[in-house]
From TrEMBL:
Superkingdom of source: Bacteria
Protein name, as recorded: PKD domain protein
Signal peptide feature range: 1-28
Matching SUPFAM superfamilies: Galactose-binding domain-like
InterPro entries: Galactose-bd-like_sf
Alphabetized UniProt keyword annotations: Signal
Length: 465
């Protein structure tokens, strides 16, 4: 008989004891001679190669028994998943040969024998859109973005403990590294002109380059060409590289030995990855745009400043969502998430075709007066192109009384700073912000961040454009 990993057999025994504990009959102890047998027992195994979905089920069980499934999910020939359901379905992300083995259990334990069936998954479960966005480009750490490197608790997006400011790691051998992917599954790491990779001082990696002063260090490495694959686990997608694959920052030996990154966001120009080893989550923002020197433009006013009235405001939301010349209501609502700190994620599951067909309204308790001048700014980043998004700052209940109503084109993956400086004051008991994304394709998400409404003479350190 196959000898299984102790962990899985222990789980099965625990399940048996639970079964006994729930039985209303008197229980005199385990009788090994009364273990279930597999004589005449069979089950159904269905493999859907179009979805990589495998369903295993048993419809008739001998009286007083329940199923114990031992399932291989990683092609190593050992069971690594266990279940006692009569029917269960699993999605396999990687092609290969797998097996499932059914045992029967009763109050006396788990049957010695089992019925094993093998099955084959033809293809990896790859998302063509992700491959298209990844391949044919040279990716780099987006050193101009806040939080381009960050860390936080395991299970999060990895940004709450520490977050790199723009250019935070300049001169550390990070920003000249380049990554490239092919549609056929090839991955190349180029350490750039410096020929180094940046390494966490506590990682134990490339110790010959460790300066032993508690500071992260640069290690000399060569370019590396290997493979990559994409995996799916529920609603999460992962970029998986082979063991000992280089990346612009090596946060730990765990990352170097098992480089499996959760894909948080991907467009043709932006890639957000999270490495999570169960103890800490590391956050990386990469871009495929050319790294050319440019004169910095105005980056908007400062959200965290005490000048910012939006930071202290409360608001409620209202939405309007339609499509077509007939302004037919869309079947799904607009999704809205308040991320905190003046950041919001708006999801547009259905298409719209005209201005004002995808409205997100913020009804605030901010006020304004005619004798004071004001400044306003926010940042917008859309996952798909939107031609003519609308930003309007308006008096509540009076659509014709507003500071401005402006249209702005949003390009996929590009962070747009919208601002208005030194606006003439208007008497408003309540100032509302209305955003409209009419014309956005189905499945678009828009991140709104760093919303600021302030008096012009209040100095927040950002200056003026």
């Amino acid at each position: 008989m196959k000898r299984y990993n102790f962990k899985h057999m222990a789980l099965a025994i625990m399940a048996t004891l639970s079964f006994v504990a729930c039985s209303p009959e008197n229980y005199a102890g385990v009788d090994e001679s009364a273990l279930s047998t597999m004589d005449g027992t069979d089950y159904q195994l269905n493999v859907d190669q179009s979805t990589n979905q495998v369903t295993m089920s048993i419809s008739q069980l001998p009286q007083g028994t329940y199923p114990v499934w031992f399932i291989d999910t990683n092609t190593d020939g050992e069971p690594d998943f266990y279940s006692t359901l009569n029917q269960l379905t699993k999605v396999y992300g990687t092609h290969g040969d797998y097996f499932v083995e059914l045992h029967l259990a009763n109050r006396n334990g788990v049957s010695r024998a089992g019925v094993r069936k093998t099955f084959h998954i033809d293809n990896d479960l790859l998302d063509p859109a992700i491959i298209s966005r990844l391949s044919g480009k040279r990716w780099r750490i987006d050193h101009a973005a806040s939080g381009h490197m960050a860390c936080g608790p395991s299970g999060t997006d990895g940004t709450s403990w520490w977050s790199a400011a723009p250019e935070d790691k300049a001169g550390k051998g990070v920003y000249d590294d380049r990554l490239s992917f092919t549609a056929e599954g090839g991955y190349t790491y180029d350490p750039g002109e410096g020929g180094t990779v940046y390494v966490n001082t506590k990682s134990g990696l490339f110790n010959e380059f460790n300066t032993n002063d508690g500071v992260d260090y640069m290690a000399k490495v060569k370019a590396q060409t290997t493979t990559y694959k994409l995996e799916v686990d529920g609603d999460k997608k992962y970029l998986v590289l082979p063991k000992h694959t280089l990346f612009p920052y090596l946060s730990s030996a765990d990352q170097y030995n098992n480089p499996r990154f959760r894909i948080e966001d991907i467009t043709s120009k932006k890639l957000v990855l999270v490495y999570d080893n169960g103890s800490i989550a590391w956050h990386f923002i990469l871009t495929s745009t050319d790294d050319v020197p440019s004169q910095p433009g105005f980056g908007g006013y400062k959200y965290d400043s005490n000048c910012n009235m939006w930071k202290k405001a409360t608001f409620t939301n209202a939405f309007y969502y339609a499509n077509g010349d007939g302004w037919t209501a869309n079947p799904d609502p607009i999704g809205f998430k308040n991320n905190g700190n003046g950041s919001y994620t708006i999801s547009l599951p259905n298409a719209s075709s005209q201005q004002w067909q995808a409205q997100v309204k913020f009804f605030t308790d901010m006020t304004a007066n005619a004798t004071t001048k004001y400044d306003f700014s926010l940042k917008l980043e859309a996952s798909q192109d939107i031609k003519g998004a609308t930003v309007k700052l308006v008096k509540h209940g009076e659509d014709g009384t507003f500071f401005f109503t402006e249209r702005v084109n949003l390009s996929a993956g590009e962070n747009i700073v919208f601002y208005k400086d030194n606006m003439e004051g208007i008497d408003m008991n309540n100032v509302d912000l209305v955003l409209d994304f009419g014309g956005a394709p189905a499945g678009t998400t828009v991140k709104v961040s760093d919303v600021v409404f302030k008096e012009h003479d209040c100095k927040d350190g950002a200056g003026h454009p």
